[in-house]
């Protein structure tokens, strides 16, 4: 049976669209004037010797962004979007990524080969430079990798009478590759986006504009004498081996083709171990897309690939493929508005028929039906091709201005919401920040559970799991459990000689009342043992009457079966972020407030403060928008103000009593001003608990006093496991402290050592 | 000001009763015939070189049980009760603890000194044996340790004009000791319980019965020439030092007194570093109490001690104390029913007055008032003394039968509910078991939070925290978090090549429905992602119609925002308990059931099964009582039975569908029959997660198949952090496997090495 027949035998509910995808995108670093960057690859990125996501291709300034394997085109683009975000903020703010396949105006001598550590790789690039010329190597593009879904292949295999799965898959991929090469003009026609070459790129005159120089023989192609057969896999393998043996090619990867077989280290292994996936290499960068390829392109190509599987195999493969090559050359070098040549129009009928049959047989829905309609429409109307859409932007045979404007706009976008990871904004901020750093450092990542903020990170065989940004293997199991229990925490700290509020825990009203004599002259706090949302807390800054004390107990007992009565500690509360025995940051949080300037109303001051890009809603930004709702207005009224009053110069009004960030408070990074004696004391507390990542809340009445274990001049009111990190990094005031990179450095110390290599 | 005046100046709400307590109890091991045990100290107990709770005193068979410091008399007795429980089940089941101070009939040559590792200690005991005689050393008793409360002492100090707290406390304790010795006859009178000596104990004739041989000069007292002054602390210290210098005493602890100062290694240190607490040594074992001292005795003595603080200091201390010694001697050797001599009656007035004033001044409640009333009544009526209560049991000048009966009854009691720790039955079973083992092994413990099952364990400087029995520092923080998330767990296991149910997770009905084609011909389970209480689960052993599948999704989505659809795995479910990479136990749980014998009704069979002492209510016993409620009766009806039907021989009926222990199911220990290949595979799964303590749930369709990674013949449906331990140890069928001792051995490997020393 033919593959087409197998496909037709599948049930309509078979997972025809099941596949894995990966995208590689090359893009040149240029400066803000559109000149090739002469700077080295950013040193803040993990070394290229191991970085799985951000490499350089041929040149030092030619970045290559590589996604991990994704289960859908959407996910692949999402991953590429995140890697792009990291790349955009890792390169200098004076640099942008060139959005076109064809480079800006360049001189050959400007092109420096990538300064890689690996000697073979450097040698290889020098060889390519000499053989093909450096300018050619600067052409960039997108490689679209695809693996047919496991269940889909299994279903086809079951329908067949084959017994060897590896051979069966090889046959599928061979057919796919054959038809892809045969019909590669379709990709060139629909998605070609290299209509011009900037002045000086070509030594000779070339017709312009075209659809795609890159996809023509003007692009980087092997020398004409390199002819590899796709008739069968054995020939493919041995043809390339022969070229290498003869010195016509230096390595298997020097064979440039619109499609390559992938999945084994050496081609010969395909024969017994099998092809795993295909690499489609003929996609020009789409400058209208920040990541270089659109969702509809990805999905249209997916359908086309399936159509190529559906269509009959060519007979006389190499002959037909040669014809396909010629047709592609013609279409690639045609004016974008030129209609398809007759030969191509004839082939569109088969292709459209295959697409329609696929949609019909497998009951594909509106989205895919619309994609097919668009393909049909574009076949008939060249104005709808990508290259045609670029025509209006060509000025004086140049796309430089257009390209630079796009690049600058995309760079600006990367720098907005710089606390977030583009595409992952629904995850917790601290996890977004950690993912950003992981991608930057070149640590492999997989999001095991997005809702749970559960990550798998690894470098070679070293695997770490991280939840909520800092719940890691570096902490042991029982210490966070101890920190979750206030009574246990206080006992442990007190036993170790650290200052905690005096007090006791009670499990009944009677017990609580019996304590009254010991606290009747003191400032106290009465609270439920587990204070969720701050409910049920009573604070007596004046000693409490027995009656009020009882009321406070009752209020607390309504929230929990255990209640704590502690001395009230006056002073200012600070959060110390302790990591691995060292204080990394100290934060002061103050209630939502504005400070007057004698000119503006409170309403205007609030609006102005809310304009800070760090302020947003619902914990997806480091600070919250300050509201002017009932609570805030009541608070203002209690201070004698309405929102429309002008606030005197220098006068501060609080809009909330509590200092939570979530109700519009300010976070103030005081790391550099907080005396180190407090930082060391807080670190010692975390260490005595045995905690690796810990938020220590200290009340400090007078910061000017030097703290010591014997005379702490502070009290620890709480230890927090899984402490927030973003609030220390992106603050309303103060420089902010980076913490997530340190988490990763400590999880993967081996990478810190590698950092200085290239 | 005198101490009495300071007390009178305190507010009535002062914490007069605040104090720390510790109890030491000596008790002889005897066999079930009442003969001294000739066996060594139990080897299952941690070595005496470090054991904080269970030691031997003079003789190898003379056990000494020592509580840690407690904040109340109730807590001290609770701790002693637990240590007694452990002791009772650590000695041979052929042995019991002699409940009297005076030993059973013994021959001197039977008495072997304690075979301790410490050379000085062995030498010391041999010296004592020679000097005082071994029989005397076999007398046992209770030492009552007490430290006045910190806030109480602080309050008294504040009222005084003293500036040196150490000197102030020394003065308090010196006064206390003086009055205690002066009035020690009170303790002898009220609580003496050594009325006879068994035949052969004394070489000479002695009058019998008396109140307390132990508290007379017939007990173990120093030689007459040892006279230490209590006039002032300096004299106390130097008198003892002089005796040691002269060789009249070999060590400071050889000074026997009804009261000793404690808290420093050497007496001289009391002078500058201070006395911390007092040791009252004159309490005979109370044979009517399993732990040797009653709650009312503890609390009465507490009040008496406070009265001794209240009463004036003696003038001419040593002279008054000598008179007190003589009075005590007289009262100790009087017949139990003899009224107090006049001198004593006179002193009772002062004592009762002091007690009344204490009660009045500090507003002590009914409980303490009743204690004082009882003291008064007993002063007037010797029949109410403890020694008088023993009179009826003396037969032929012997208490041997009485003592042996008590000992056997107490031993029986220690062996009931042997899965629990007496006094701590409200804690979770696994924690009770861990505490039992910790006490047995000699690991220090402190319950930091009883409701939270939070323990602190330590040996020397090595501290471990344990929650819920096996949440320890040996697990890292993130692995249990991974195990709590079924999706993450499945991904990690699947990535590592272990067999998990195929399936997927959905966060919307649409997503779930789109999955239907892939599962429509399969047996599936639809369940909420977090299955609390087993709600919302649908099992389709026949493939589901789309309609029913949708209903199942809706049911699951009512319980959680994420739903799992997995293949249904047929087979039997087993729980594998993995610890540190090794499988310690395998458990099969089956639904509540009875098996017929052709004679008894189902009701009778249930009653018989419920008679198993392991069955109780509410998770405080390893198995649950099987109910015959509506659910069970419905289940019976569905099988055609009522509770009053006779069940045919060999016929099994289930009373519940689910196999939970909590609804009366049986736990069956199959560790020894489950093929090791499954045990190793389960252990490998836990190890690949990185878990130290883990419960692995495997479905095994056919146990007779050998499992391997490549052909597992089983599926892992869940990994459990904090897995239950008690259910593996105390089973309805099968031997049961001890797990908690292994937890401790792994937390404290240094103790395993020490185990074979003595």
Automatic annotation (TrEMBL), chains A, B:
EC number: 6.3.2.2, 6.3.2.3
Catalytic activity: L-cysteine + L-glutamate + ATP = gamma-L-glutamyl-L-cysteine + ADP + phosphate + H(+); gamma-L-glutamyl-L-cysteine + glycine + ATP = glutathione + ADP + phosphate + H(+)
InterPro entries, per database record: ATP-grasp, Gln_synth/guanido_kin_cat_dom, Glu_cys_ligase, Glut_biosynth, Glut_cys_ligase, GshAB_ATP-grasp
Keywords for this protein: ATP-binding, Glutathione biosynthesis, Ligase, Magnesium, Manganese, Metal-binding, Multifunctional enzyme, Nucleotide-binding
Pfam families: ATP-grasp_6, Glu_cys_ligase
GO molecular function: glutamate-cysteine ligase activity; glutathione synthase activity
Catalytic class of the enzyme: ligase
Signal peptide span: none
Biological or metabolic pathway of the protein: Sulfur metabolism; glutathione biosynthesis; glutathione from L-cysteine and L-glutamate: step 2/2; Sulfur metabolism; glutathione biosynthesis; glutathione from L-cysteine and L-glutamate: step 1/2
Cofactor: Mg(2+); Mn(2+)
Family membership: In the N-terminal section; belongs to the glutamate--cysteine ligase type 1 family. Type 2 subfamily.
Oligomeric and partner information: Monomer.
Function noted in UniProt: Synthesizes glutathione from L-glutamate and L-cysteine via gamma-L-glutamyl-L-cysteine.
Protein name per the record: Glutathione biosynthesis bifunctional protein GshAB
UniProt source species: Streptococcus raffinosi
Classification lineage: Bacteria, Bacillati, Bacillota, Bacilli, Lactobacillales
Gene name of the encoded protein: gshAB
């Amino acid at each position: 049976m033919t593959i087409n027949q197998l496909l037709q035998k599948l049930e309509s509910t078979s997972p025809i669209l099941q596949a894995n995808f990966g995208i590689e995108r090359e893009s040149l670093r240029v400066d803000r004037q559109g000149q090739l960057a002469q700077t080295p690859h950013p040193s803040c990125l993990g070394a290229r010797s191991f970085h799985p996501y951000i490499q350089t291709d041929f040149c030092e300034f030619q970045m290559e962004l590589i996604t991990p394997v994704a289960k859908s085109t959407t996910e692949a683009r999402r991953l590429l979007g995140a890697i792009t975000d990291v790349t955009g903020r890792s390169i200098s703010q004076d640099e942008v990524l060139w959005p076109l396949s064809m480079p800006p105006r360049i001189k050959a001598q400007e092109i420096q080969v990538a300064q890689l550590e690996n000697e073979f790789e450097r040698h290889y690039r020098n060889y390519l430079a000499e053989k093909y010329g450096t300018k050619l190597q600067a052409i960039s593009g997108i490689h679209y990798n695809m693996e047919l879904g496991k269940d889909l292949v299994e279903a086809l295999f079951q329908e067949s009478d084959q017994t060897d799965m590896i051979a069966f898959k090889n046959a599928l991929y061979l057919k796919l590759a054959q038809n892809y090469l045969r019909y590669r003009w379709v990709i060139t026609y629909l998605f070609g986006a290299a209509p011009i070459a900037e002045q000086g790129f070509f030594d000779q005159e070339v017709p312009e504009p075209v659809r795609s120089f890159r996809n023509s023989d003007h692009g980087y192609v092997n020398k004409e004498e390199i002819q590899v057969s796709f008739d069968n896999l054995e020939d493919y393998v041995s043809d390339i081996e022969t070229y290498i043996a003869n010195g016509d090619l230096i390595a298997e990867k020097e064979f440039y083709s619109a499609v390559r077989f992938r999945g084994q280290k050496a081609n010969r292994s395909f024969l017994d171990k099998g092809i795993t996936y295909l690499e489609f290499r003929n996609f020009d960068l789409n400058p209208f897309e920040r990541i270089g390829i659109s969702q509809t392109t990805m999905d249209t190509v997916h359908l086309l690939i399936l159509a190529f599987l559906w269509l009959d195999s060519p007979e006389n493969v190499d002959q037909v493929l040669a014809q396909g090559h010629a047709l592609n050359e013609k279409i690639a070098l045609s004016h974008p508005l030129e209609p398809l040549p007759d030969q191509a129009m004839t082939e569109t009928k088969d292709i459209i028929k295959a697409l329609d049959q696929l949609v019909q047989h497998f009951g594909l829905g509106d989205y895919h039906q619309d994609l097919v309609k668009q393909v049909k429409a574009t076949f008939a109307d060249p104005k709808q091709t990508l290259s045609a859409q670029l025509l209006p932007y060509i000025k004086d045979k140049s796309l430089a201005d257009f390209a630079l404007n796009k690049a600058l706009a995309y760079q600006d976008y990367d720098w907005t919401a710089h606390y977030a990871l583009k595409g992952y904004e629904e995850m917790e901020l601290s996890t977004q920040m950690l993912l950003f750093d992981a991608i930057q450092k070149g640590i492999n990542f997989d999001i095991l559970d997005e809702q749970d903020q559960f990550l798998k990170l690894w470098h070679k065989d070293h695997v770490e799991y991280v939840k909520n940004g800092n719940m890691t293997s570096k902490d042991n199991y029982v210490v966070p459990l101890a920190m979750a229990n206030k009574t246990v925490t206080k006992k442990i700290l007190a036993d170790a000689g650290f200052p905690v509020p005096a007090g006791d825990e009670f499990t009944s009203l009677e017990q609580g009342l019996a304590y009254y004599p010991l606290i009747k002259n003191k400032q106290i706090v009465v609270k439920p043992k587990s204070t969720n949302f701050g409910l049920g807390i009573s604070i007596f800054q004046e000693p409490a009457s027995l009656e009020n004390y009882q009321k406070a107990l009752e209020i607390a007992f309504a929230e929990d079966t255990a209640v704590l009565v502690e001395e009230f500690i006056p002073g200012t509360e600070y959060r110390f972020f302790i990591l691995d025995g060292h204080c990394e940051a100290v934060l002061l949080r103050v209630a939502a407030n504005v400070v007057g300037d004698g000119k503006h109303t409170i309403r205007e001051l609030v609006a102005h403060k809310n304009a800070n890009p760090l302020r947003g809603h619902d914990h997806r930004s480091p600070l919250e928008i300050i509201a002017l709702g009932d609570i805030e207005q009541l608070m203002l009224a209690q201070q004698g103000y309405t929102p429309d009053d002008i606030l005197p110069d220098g006068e501060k009004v609080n809009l909330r009593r509590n200092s939570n960030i979530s109700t519009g408070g300010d976070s103030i990074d005081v790391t550099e001003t907080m005396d180190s004696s407090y930082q060391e004391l807080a670190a010692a507390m975390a260490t005595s608990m045995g905690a690796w990542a810990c938020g220590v809340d200290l009340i400090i009445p007078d910061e000017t006093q030097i703290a010591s274990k014997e005379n702490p001049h502070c009290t620890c009111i709480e230890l927090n496991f899984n402490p927030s990190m973003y609030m220390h990094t992106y603050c309303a005031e103060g420089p902010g402290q980076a913490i997530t990179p340190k988490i990763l450095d400590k999880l993967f110390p081996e990478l810190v050592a590698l950092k200085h290599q290239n």
